[in-house]
Design brief:
The complex is a heterodimer of chains A (381) and B (369).
Chain A lengths: L8 H15 L13 H14 L17 H13 L8 H13 L2 H13 L4 E4 L15 E5 L2 E12 L6 E7 L11 E7 L5 E6 L8 E12 L3 E2 L5 H8 L3 H4 L4 H16 L6 H29 L9 H22 L9 E3 L2 E3 L1 H8 L9 H11 L4
Chain B lengths: L2 H20 L2 H10 L6 H9 L17 H14 L6 H15 L4 H7 L5 E4 L3 E2 L2 E2 L6 E2 L3 E10 L6 E8 L2 E8 L5 E7 L5 E11 L1 E5 L1 H39 L1 E2 L2 E2 L4 H30 L3 H30 L10 H13 L4 H18 L1
Classes of the chains: A alpha+beta (381), B alpha+beta (369).
């Protein structure tokens, strides 16, 4: 087994880049929608054969065992080449959860099935009454013999209609003194009579989000992960790496490249007003990358990131939105047109980019919640 | 950057910061402003003694040879207390020009040691503002024409002037009391002055001539621009700190105003802008130390100034708003910072000017590839 961490950063980057360039299917580059598993299965098979499905997992569980610095490089290269993340909820969330808090039996059973994508996972966190105030969740799991009986509703469950399993936060103690205290992590099979999935059509006319209804659905008590009523702190522990990932410059960088291509094709760079607005955005992206680099260096030195990393997400998602808004303006009378707009022999789907940027300031902790966090934890207000 | 360099920079930051704090911090800027002096000669000597003026200058000339990164550390600390001494113009322009064009001239060491002070006159005014061409003429012995936006002319021993000679550009040196000189102060919002200077057959001494003068000037101006950006970073950091302290203590409706979400979110946006600005300006200075082309140095300098001007203006203006009515009084220090930010932003080009330059440089570099 290769010890990737022993390589220099540059060697590792070259290796990762070469693999993506050689093996990643051209038709899947920079997908603007979230694919179903069937659409990307041929890529997953290659990735699995290479042993690269789970870059962050320890090698003993079938991962690459990458340290933070190498992991950042891996993701940077993935995003640079437009490699789709695939159906990675199992890899990003369930695996780390089980590795950290699961029993040996859970590890032995679930982890190989995640790597092979035999099971495809979705994340059941949000509920109609529990969005930013996630701890307010009400979906209940009540012990009945060897099972939990689950009742309630999850929402914004990404790709639930293409998942075989759900990992979810449920209320197991309705009488706990603080609402964060009665929450547990359970795993459940989606393929049962008590589970009903309905897709939600988004502004972008896509159906990547779902509602999931539980009506006396059952899951074995063996599918409880970690201690009962300790799910909240486990969920928070899972988010540590996501917090820099969600603030990475790549989405904004890609959008800026798209804006440049489109604006050059449309002659907008002859307009001094456009030039100034473009430059402002380009520098917003470049200067954010400097701050991102500071946090990445912290990770590389083995330090844990503090709450101040939320700055990255706020800045980059808002910049990303402004870039796509400027693209709409450059499109002029085509600003509301569905589908790619031709500039030379390249098609730029301005509207799709605009839509894709909207939820960025909402998901992963809305930017307002992020500001609350910074205010309290960093500014001491 | 190696660990040793990081440690050196930290020590430099501590020693400059401590020196300026001991001298009176932000309060000193007010005292100097309300006195009849432009700056404090004693502090100038202390700064020079601590090696501050030679941070970026080569060791052969008595400098520390630590590059622009180190000069940026100095500039941030200067900005944090808005020290009135012309540290950035001296490091960037006076020393920057001499170390490139006449490194053997004894005046260079004297400036670094704080024994002499040189002002640099290079910009010229035309009907619409800043002129693109140099019209000030040097005929081989005397100088005739006008310069503008000169920093620190009143306290300088001599003035370095970029002029057009008979065979192209020249750098000359004139005494401040030479014949034919007249100087006019343009008072600035921070009560400093920029000077308009005119020369009528004023005797001048040649230091360098030819295309190298143009190149050295472009590089020295790029350095100074980036250092002014670092000065702005220090300044906006101070405005942020004052504001945070104020909203934590000022009470209305029986609570600190910093407990209200609308104030919290505005403070967070100021903080993020400050952190982005500091990271970008430090990265730009480091990139300039390693840049391979003049164009890249200029582009990084413009990037730094564009960001720092924007951040300082946003932060100082928000700071006034969050201070409420007292922010509009002369008594509160936050106003000193706003006034200094106006001057530093306008000097050597504001954010819009540098965004233009940045994109022009980027396009030129891309076209050349």
């Amino acid at each position: 087994m290769t010890d990737w961490n022993a390589m220099s950063d540059e060697e590792f980057r070259t290796e990762v880049r070469a693999f993506f360039e050689a093996e990643y299917p051209e038709e899947l580059r920079h997908l603007s929608h979230r694919p179903k598993f069937a659409e990307i299965k041929h890529w997953h098979v290659k990735l699995h054969a290479k042993g690269w499905v789970a870059p962050a997992w320890p090698a003993e569980f079938g991962g690459m065992g990458l340290e933070a610095a190498k992991l950042l490089i891996f993701y940077e290269e993935q995003q640079r080449f437009g490699v789709n993340r695939g159906r990675d909820m199992g890899i990003q969330m369930v695996g780390p959860l089980i590795i950290k808090f699961g029993t040996q039996a859970q590890k032995d059973y679930w982890l190989p099935r995640i790597l092979s994508c035999e099971d495809i996972w979705c994340q059941g966190y949000s509920e109609p009454g529990a969005g930013s105030d996630l701890a307010n969740l009400r979906t209940s799991a009540v012990i009945d013999g060897d099972d939990f009986v689950i009742n309630g509703q999850k929402i914004w469950t990404t790709m639930a209609h293409d998942a075989t399993h759900i990992f979810m936060l449920v209320r197991t103690d309705a009488d706990a003194p603080r609402k964060q205290q009665g929450i547990s992590f359970v795993l459940a099979d989606m393929d049962q009579p008590g589970v009903d999935v309905r897709t939600i059509t988004t502004l972008a006319a896509e159906t990547e989000f779902c509602e999931v209804f539980f009506d006396d659905a059952r899951t074995p008590r063996a599918n409880l992960v970690g201690e009962i009523n300790k799910g909240w702190s486990m969920a928070k522990a899972l988010l540590s790496f996501e917090r820099i990932f969600i603030g990475s410059p790549s989405l904004a960088q890609n959008a800026l490249g798209q804006l440049e291509t489109f604006a050059r094709g449309r002659g907008a760079f002859d307009d001094p007003v456009f030039r100034d607005r473009y430059t402002e955005l380009a520098l917003d992206v470049e200067d954010h990358a400097a701050l991102y680099g500071r946090f990445a260096d912290q990770l590389k030195r083995g330090e844990t990131l503090g709450a101040d990393v939320s700055m990255l997400k706020i800045w980059v998602t808002e910049t990303y939105q402004r870039i796509t808004e400027l693209m709409i303006e450059v499109a002029g009378p085509d600003g509301g047109s569905i589908g790619p707009l031709q500039v030379g022999n390249i098609g730029v789907d301005v509207l799709a980019s605009f839509y894709k940027a909207r939820p960025a300031t909402i998901y992963g902790g809305s930017n307002e919640i992020q500001r609350n966090i910074l205010s309290k934890a960093v500014l001491g207000l | 950057m190696t660990m040793i360099q990081d440690e050196d920079l930290r020590l430099l930051r501590d020693s400059v910061g401590t020196l300026l704090e001991r001298a009176g911090g932000l309060g000193r800027a007010r005292r100097v402003r309300d006195s009849d002096k432009s700056w404090d000669a004693g502090i100038w000597q202390e700064l020079a003694g601590a090696g501050v003026l030679g941070a970026a200058a080569p060791e052969e000339a008595g400098g520390l040879g630590m590059g622009l990164t180190a000069a940026g550390v100095v500039a941030e600390e200067i900005g944090r207390v808005i020290a009135p001494e012309p540290v950035v113009p001296t490091i960037g322009l006076a020393i920057g020009l001499m170390q490139r064009l006449c490194p053997q001239d004894p005046a260079l060491e004297a400036v670094i040691a704080g024994e002499a002070m040189l002002a640099v006159a290079w910009q010229e005014r035309c009907a619409t503002g800043l002129s693109d061409v140099i019209e000030c003429r040097f005929d081989g012995t005397t100088l005739t024409g006008s310069k503008d936006w000169v920093v620190g002319a009143s306290g300088a021993d001599r003035i370095l002037v970029v002029a057009e000679g008979t065979q192209g550009p020249v750098l000359v040196r004139v005494a401040t009391d030479a014949t034919g000189i007249s100087m006019q102060a343009r008072p600035q919002s921070d009560v400093s002055a920029l000077w308009g200077i005119s020369f009528a057959a004023t005797p001048a001494e040649v230091l360098a001539e030819g295309a190298q003068v143009t190149d050295a000037l472009a590089n020295a101006v790029a350095d100074t621009t980036a250092l002014a950006a670092a000065e702005l970073v220090g300044l906006s950091g101070a405005a942020m700190a004052l504001t945070l302290e104020y909203i934590k203590t000022r009470e209305q409706f029986d609570k600190p105003i910093g407990s209200f979400q609308v104030i919290q979110h505005r403070a967070v946006d100021m903080h993020i802008m400050q952190e982005v600005s500091q990271a970008a300006v430090r990265e730009a200075l480091a990139a300039m130390d390693h840049a391979e082309t003049a164009s890249e140095r200029m582009r990084q300098a413009s990037r730094a100034k564009a960001r720092a001007c924007r951040a300082a203006q946003m932060i100082t203006r928000e700071a006034i708003q969050l201070h409420g009515a007292v922010g509009y009084t002369d008594e509160f220090d936050v106003g000193l910072l706003l006034n200094r930010a106006l001057v530093l932003s306008a000097w050597l080009g504001d954010a819009a000017y540098h965004r233009r330059r940045w994109l022009d440089a980027k396009e030129t570099e891309e076209a050349a590839q």
